[in-house]
Amino acid sequence: MNPIYRKCHRISFVNYFRNTSTMPLKNDIVSHHVIKNAKKFVDIPRMKRWEIVLRFLPKGKYYGLGLNEMHRMINEEYGNIVKMPSLFGKPEMIFSYNDSDNETILRNESKKPYRYSFEPMKYFREKIRPDVYGGEYGSIASEHGDRWYKIRTLVNPVMLQPKMVQRYTASINDITLDFINYILTRDISNQMSNRDLNLWSLESIANITLDRRLGLFNNNTNGDVAAEKMIDLIRRFFIMCVDFEVSPSIWKYYHTKAFKEYINVNNDLLNIVMNYIEATIEETRENKAGKVENVNGIFQQLLKIDKRVAIIMAVDSMIAGIDTTASAITGILYCLAKNPEKQEKLREEILKTILTSELNAKSLSNLPYLRACIKEGMRLYPPVSGTSRKTDVDLTLSNYFIPKGTYVVTWPQLFYRLENIFPHSNKYLPERWIKSKEQKCPQLNQSTKFHFLPFGHGVRSCVGRRFANIEMEILLINLLRRFKIEWNGDDLQIRSAFVNIPSGNVNFTLSKL
Ligand code: HEM
């Protein structure tokens, strides 16, 4: 990025926080200079309405395509910036594929960034289930403005506090050991699928946001029918999101059979999570020993603030935290299985650092190669490809003027394979994330900081990121200490939807060392 251009944007960002009135500020002159020389908004290359409709119809260019493939094709055809006209009640949007534009957008967001997504889910929550979502908080993932800010401000100090995350180390470790035992003792012993990893991630998230064990790895459990159903519903939810949020859809005017099904999926999902929540609240009330795992845990703390906040956080965590974490760990394990020398190097670090099966904050803090392996796996197989924002100030993107209030979709996954940013971009090289004399770490380099954003950016970034990381670290430690991980079958296939989901056969073999 041109340094003068970058400076201009930084100045206008600072001013935005200093003074949000419409009065011109001294430094804005610099910012306006950039904008004045920019090309006009109306001149941005534009896809026509009929083209959008045709391309999503059967036999159309984008029909059945994964989202990442679709964005790659649009980028190749139109370049780094393209305007998508408003259609069927969806506002006009800019698709932005330029890495420095992405930086400009994110550096200039306000303290209440608006992310245009989950509109149909917002509809479901507000219109169909006001009993849960009708209060002052709304939700986290699908809410905007003051309502989002209010709940996120309550949730952040609980969810993002390092001490809180550390408090869960022991229970996540227990879950992981139970999970491994479950894999080893069932009929198809030593084989691990993506569904297994989904169950592990569900049990972990329930422990984190509901402070309870579902018991999915106990033989005598009766909770697994609901859990299995929930995993299917979440997967269907993310796939259906593409139909109503990306493909042209008339859902705002007419509820088709498919949209009614989408509503049913949301309802069934909410009902299952509500059953878990009600059971936890009941157990808390009765203070049944052994059931409520962590009396000072997240759910209990949020419950003290407001029951609705605890419910909203638990539901959004289930939706946002199960498939994402399972997809991430599938990609990471796949990379390690395909690169046995990296797997061995990681094992050496783990065996050298973790001397007993007990894990704690101190032992976990000294595993740089483990962290690098996780990052590199998420670079090659990111669970989430892109995000969106409504611009909070006037901007210049790819030399075009973008007025405040424009909806912009950015697609960082396209940067993850750029050779100029990640040399040998198709290779699994965890070393690129380790700072050394010979090698600069891209994540620590300011100019490339915005090229890798698996958990998003800024105040609207993933609220569960610390938990996702610690869950993955603990699983990798426990697996690599005891097993060689191998991959059976063809290359890993990913279906790119709102969350990227492994689509083909996922089959790892765990061989005892
Ligand atoms: C590897 C696993 C995960 C990945 C890659 C991931 C990624 C993301 C991304 C990219 C966003 C959007 C950020 C943005 O727009 O800037 C997001 C939002 C969110 N994530 Fe995660 N996530 C993961 C796990 C989790 C977990 C475990 C939880 C819950 C415990 C969670 C809860 C949420 C919530 C509630 C939001 C909405 C935040 C808001 O809008 O304020 N995520 N996540």
Can you tell me about this structure?
With 513 residues, the protein is an alpha+beta fold. It has a single domain (3-10, 29-512), classed as Cytochrome P450 (Cytochrome p450). 51% of the residues lie in helices and 8% in strands. β9 (494-496) and β10 form a beta hairpin. α14 packs antiparallel against α15 (307-338). It is globular. The chain starts with a helix and ends with a strand. Mean pLDDT is 86; it is low at 1-33. This is Cytochrome P450. Heme binds at residue 462. Belongs to the cytochrome P450 family.
- pLDDT below 50 for ≥5 consecutive residues: which ranges? 1-33
CATH class: Mainly Alpha
Order of helices and strands: HHHHEEHHHHHHEHHHHHHHHEEEEHEEEE
Portion in strands: 5-15%
Anisotropy-based shape: globular
List keywords for this structure.
alpha+beta; 3-stranded antiparallel sheet; Cytochrome P450; CYP11_CYP27_families; binds protoporphyrin IX containing FE; 4-stranded mixed sheet; globular; about 525 residues; iron; Cyt_P450; Cytochrome p450; single chain
In short:
51% of the residues lie in helices and 8% in strands.
Topology:
Elements: H1 3-18, H2 28-36, H3 49-56, H4 67-78, E1 81-84, E2 93-96, H5 99-107, H6 119-128, H7 130-133, H8 145-159, H9 162-167, H10 169-185, E3 191-192, H11 194-209, H12 224-245, H13 257-286, H14 298-305, H15 307-338, H16 340-353, H17 361-364, H18 368-380, E4 387-390, E5 395-397, E6 400-402, E7 407-410, H19 465-482, E8 483-487, E9 494-496, E10 500-502, E11 508-512
Parallel strand pairs: 2-7
Antiparallel strand pairs: 1-2, 3-11, 4-7, 5-6, 8-11, 9-10
The structure holds protoporphyrin IX containing FE.
